[in-house]
Structure formats: C-alpha cells, structure tokens
C-alpha cells in the first residue's frame, strides 16, 4: 500500500450542486494523526458532531489507496481496495463495509461540498486502530497488523475458510483484520467449536452440572485434592473477593477451568473478547447460520474423563504460576497477533510430553472436527463455510490443515 502522506489530494466533485445541500459552518476541527504525523485535507477538516468524529471521506479513503466512485443520482460513495470495500449513502445511518451492514452513530453528510463520514467506521474497517486524546482533540491512527492463523480450503469449485482462534482476548486484538471480515461476510455459514453466544436454558445447565461438574456422593473438593493445594485455592478465592468454599462442590477439572479463567481475567483477557465470540455475536445479530463442530456435552465429557493425576498436575502448575505477570494466555495472544506458526508449533510439541492430554485434546477431537469439515466441503449446494476452532487444532502433523492437505484439498495460508 502506498504510504499515506500528510497531505491528501481531494476528489474534485461538485457535490453541493448535485445534491442541493447548502454550505454549512462546521464545528471546531479535530486533529487526525498517522504515525504521529498530522493529516491535512484540502477539502475540509475533521470535526465532532453527536459525539462522533467526522472526516472528509473521499480524501481519507483515497489516501488509503481506495478507488472511489461517486453515484451522483443516489448521492452514494463507493470505495474499494482489493477485497475491501465501503458504500456510504448521504443521510443514511446504515452503511456497508467489507460486504457487511453497519449502523452508524452519525449519517454521512455533505458540508460545503465535501462528503463527511464517521472516522472510526472508516478507519477500523480499513484495518486501523484509533486512540483518542480528548484533551488535545486528536485521533491517532495506527495500522492494526494482527495476522491470526487463517487458511482457505478449495477443491472442485468448493471453498471453505479456517480460522485458528484463541477463546479469550483483549482490546489489542481489535479491530479485527479486515480480510477476515470479508471472508466471513462472503460465507453462508459460521461454524464454531461450540456456540458460546447462544444462551443455555437453566434445565440444560443443571443437567450438565449434575452429569459432569458436581459430586453426587456427598463428598466435596477437599476430599479429592491434597490439603496444601486446597489451602492455596482458598487463598486465591479470598484474594479475589469470593468465599473460600466457593468451589467446594465442583470436581477438580471444573476448579481448574474456573481458576484458569480467573487468571486470564486478571491478566486483562475476557471470553467476551475472544475471536470465537466476536464472530458469534456478529452472526447472531445478522441472523447468519451458526453450526457447531462439537457440543457442550462432548467438551465437558472430555475434561470429566481426564485422570485424577493429570488434573492434579494441571491444578498444581496453575497454582504455582497464578501470580506471575506473564502467562500462557498472553503468549498465545502475542503469537496470534503476529501469526507466528512456528512458535505456536513449539507450544503444541510441548503438549506431547503429556500423552493423555495431547491424545484427548488434539488427536481425538481433531478427528471429529475433520470429519465434519469434510462434510461441509462435500455440500452439494456448494455453500461456503467459515470455520473457527482453537489455533492448536489447526496446525501440526495431527492438525486439521495437514489432514485436509493429505486428503487432496488445496489449503492456502492467507
């Protein structure tokens, strides 16, 4: 992409005559910076209206190397760059970005012959992160270069997308890479390991808890783990404002999951910001079909059948590292942002040192996922599927990507 300079060349269009909109006086300007260099626009300047920063849309997008086309009859701007695109219609609070509809807080408008549109909408959907400095009234843009682990699978005119995910995230992972949103928008179905965005009814949750999570023999957690480990768990719960007996009714595997989630939250990571949840929420809002590779039942069953020794060793390691500032979640998030498959593969190899865990979590689960994915690829309707699973399921000798290659599919890293 051509380097964005501090001086944008505006698109010369007599919009005021085409639309009949009269000249207006704009609000005080807002500074827009890229890599600490302030951008200027020949056709106007950014300003705030209705708590939304508006920017000269044509000049801004042209500076990002988008090709522009103005529909005079419908007062609509269309912009494209490769697979990325925008459609902005004056006076309309719904706009298109990368083939998806978005609701805007402020509609695009023409002021003094220049089309203005929300800066955040344009920047984030073009792949730029915005940091706002209220004191100096400045918006700083930086290219968000989060690569992720993303592949396209093709055979006999059918295509499918694979996205390796991490199930928790933070603000640094967003905005999402625009190419991912394009592929998602062009897909007929979203496929998740499990749709965590779907509400679970109370009866189903009670049944799952009784079946997998809770003791039914009048014993409690202290009866199943050593006293020192239980004491450490009580200390962590107390430190975080929970009753010391909060986890007593749960089996050790559920205790491990609860403590691991707590550690992730303390490190600034949330399940609500995970890649799976991001796309699940988009699909739920738009009504896109959501399918599942697994189920809550199958995932809970997996943990419930781990040996007591394996779960005890996992809890022990978690307790030893609980208060350390760096953790596996942060490392995994860094690898996802950089797209470093080699480093991810090293972490996967380390799992093999615990054969029980690797076989159950990777080999056995991958087999079921691969079977379902092949079913999608054999869809007679030739519909497109956007499949998301944990990044570790995608890579390595036993991974989904390698299995599909061996079965004759063309798999391309994007």
Automatic annotation (TrEMBL):
Residues 35-138 form the Copper amine oxidase-like N-terminal domain. Gene3D superfamilies: Copper amine oxidase-like, N-terminal domain. It holds the Pfam family TraB_PrgY_gumN. CDD domains: Tiki (cd14789). It comes from the Bacteria. InterPro entries: Cu_amine_oxidase-like_N, Mao_N_sf, TraB/PrgY/GumN_fam, YbaP-like. Keywords: Signal. Residues 1-23 form the signal peptide. This is Copper amine oxidase-like N-terminal domain-containing protein. It comes from Paenibacillus oryzae.
């Amino acid at each position: 992409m051509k380097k964005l300079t501090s001086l944008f060349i505006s698109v010369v269009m007599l919009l005021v005559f085409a639309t009949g909109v009269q000249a207006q006086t704009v609000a005080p300007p807002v500074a827009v910076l890229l890599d600490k260099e302030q951008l200027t626009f020949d056709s106007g300047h950014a300003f705030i209206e209705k708590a939304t920063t508006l920017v000269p849309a044509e000049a801004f997008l042209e500076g990002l190397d988008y090709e522009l086309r103005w529909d005079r009859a419908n007062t609509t701007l269309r912009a494209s760059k490769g697979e990325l695109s925008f459609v902005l219609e004056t006076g309309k609070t719904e706009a298109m970005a990368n083939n998806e509809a978005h609701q805007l807080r402020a509609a695009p408008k023409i002021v003094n012959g220049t089309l203005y549109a929300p800066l955040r909408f344009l920047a984030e959907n073009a792949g730029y992160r915005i940091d706002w400095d209220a004191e100096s009234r400045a918006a700083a843009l930086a290219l968000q270069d989060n690569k992720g682990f993303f592949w396209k699978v093709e055979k006999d005119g059918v295509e499918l997308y694979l996205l390796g995910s991490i199930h928790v995230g933070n603000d640094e992972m967003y905005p999402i890479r625009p190419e991912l949103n394009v592929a998602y928008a062009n897909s007929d179905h979203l496929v998740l390991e499990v749709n965590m965005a779907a509400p679970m009814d109370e009866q189903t949750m009670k049944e799952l808890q009784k079946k997998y999570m809770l003791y039914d023999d009048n014993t409690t957690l202290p009866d199943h783990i050593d006293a020192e480990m239980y004491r450490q768990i009580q200390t962590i719960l107390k430190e975080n404002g929970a009753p010391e007996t909060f986890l007593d009714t749960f089996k050790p595997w559920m205790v491990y999951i609860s403590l691991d989630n707590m550690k992730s939250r303390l490190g600034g990571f949330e399940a609500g910001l995970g890649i799976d949840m991001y796309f699940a929420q988009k699909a739920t809002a738009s009504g896109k079909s959501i399918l599942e590779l697994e189920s809550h039942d199958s995932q809970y069953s997996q943990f419930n059948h781990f040996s007591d020794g394996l779960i005890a060793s996992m809890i022990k390691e978690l307790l030893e590292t609980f208060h350390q500032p760096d953790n596996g979640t942060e490392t995994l998030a860094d690898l996802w942002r950089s797209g470093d498959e080699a480093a991810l593969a090293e972490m996967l190899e380390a799992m093999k040192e615990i054969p029980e865990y690797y076989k159950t979590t990777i080999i056995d689960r991958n087999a079921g996922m691969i079977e379902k994915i092949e079913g999608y690829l054999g869809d007679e309707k030739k519909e497109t599927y956007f499949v998301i699973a944990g990044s570790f399921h995608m890579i390595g000798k036993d991974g989904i990507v390698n299995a599909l290659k061996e079965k004759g599919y063309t798999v391309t890293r994007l």
